[in-house]
Amino acid sequence: MATRKRASLSSTTEPPQPKENTQKKPTSDEFQISPPKSAVILVLSLFFFLPYFYLIFHHYKIEQELKNSILINAALSLIGYFITVKLIPVASRYVLRANLFGRDINKRGTPQGEVKVPESLGVVVGTVFLVLAVAFQYFFTVDSNWVVEYNAALASICFMLFLGFLDDVLDLPWRVKLILPSFAALVLLMAYAGHTTIVIPKPFIPYIGLEVMHLGWIYKLYMFLLAVFCTNSINIHAGINGLEVGQTVVISAAIVIHNIMQIGASTDFDYKQAHVFSIYLVQPLLATSLGLLAYNWYPSSVFVGDTYTYFAGMTMAVAGILGHFSCELPLITSSACRLHSMPTTPLASV
Predict the structure, then answer these.
(1) pLDDT tens digits for 28-43?
(2) Which of 70, 144, 158, 347 maximizes the CB count within 10 A of its CB?
(3) Where are the membrane-spanning stretches (predicted)?
């Protein structure tokens, strides 16, 4: 009864309070991005998987041991694709909370142009890639002759991933961006124990008088510049939804096909091991990049940031250098960049 009297008294003496708005304002914790474009990724993947399985199982007779290691790495990479697809929405909320976002400049002046698009989602791809690479090394032992170079490759990639995220946070000038890959390349060159010779093209042999030329430190200088080129070749192509990730997918698929063709056509076991080593690095890159492309395809739900471009460029440079096809890598990279840089989709801020 006393409680009821106090309630009645307060209701007559106190002025009515305005009702609070029960609708919650959207926060970064409640942010939801568009679902992944899995159908598009499936169609694109068929262009790669069909020749991939044809070359491995039908066209070439690859040793069973090498074939098993390649397929195990492919299965692990497929798991990485699904992990990437699941982690990107989670990471997007944390990225927005840290005010790392961009806006689609093609929709400027419309409500969609004011939507904050999460940026620097390449950190998810890089993290999943490194976990896959370490897990593969631990559970499926890499040849002891390659352990030092394999770890050096992972160190260079990890260093470049860190520098890319640093660039996204601090917005470094271009003169600094050109220097950053050189520090990561030093780790790779210190562990490089491969040859420093090149095969002279047949039309030039009569003029040079040599079939094989030893270059020494000049070849290492070339590899140093190659790492800088590959990193910035991905980073400089930006501004269109799916461009950076798309060209990485095209280049990675071309590298995998090239490696399989070299493995199947060669009789030198060490030469085959070098290309298998390259596949160990490129297949996880391809799978995780497809997971990011599912969200970065137009209209983009996330932006990749310099974190991804630096990471992807260094991974391909490492795969080419330690896979002993650094001469062919610029041709593959430049051709894919030219093919994929045609402006077929609206521009977007990156």
Answers:
(1) 445 568 888 989 999 9
(2) 70
(3) 39-57, 69-91, 121-140, 147-166, 178-200, 246-265, 277-298, 310-332
Residue 346 has pLDDT above 80, yes or no: no
Please, which residues bridge with residue 347 across strands? 240
Burial classification of residue 45, based on how many CB atoms lie within 10 Å of its CB (0-12 exposed, 13-18 middle, 19 or more buried): middle
Q: 245 Cβ partners below 8 Å, 6+ apart?
A: 289, 292, 293, 296, 304, 308, 312
> For residue 274, which amino acid is it?
A
Spell out the residues 6+ positions from residue 45 whose beta carbon is closer than 8 angstroms to its own. 290
Distance CA 289, CA 155 (A): 20
Task: Tell me the three-class secondary structure of the chain, residue by residue.
Answer: CHHHHHHHHHHHHCCCCCCCCCCCCCCHHHCCCCCCCHHHHHHHHHHHHHHHHHHHHHHCCCCHHHHHHHHHHHHHHHHHHHHHHHHHHHHHHHHHHCCCEECCHHHCCCHHHHCCEECCCHHHHHHHHHHHHHHHHHHCCCCHHHHHHHHHHHHHHHHHHHHHHHHHHHCCCHHHHCCHHHHHHHHHHHHCCCCCEEECCHHHHHHHCCCEEECCHHHHHHHHHHHHHHHHHHHCCCCECCHHHHHHHHHHHHHHHHHHHHHHHCCCHHHHHHHHHHHHHHHHHHHHHHHHHHHHCCCCCCCCHHHHHHHHHHHHHHHHHHCCCCCCHHHHHHHHHHHHCCCCCCECCC
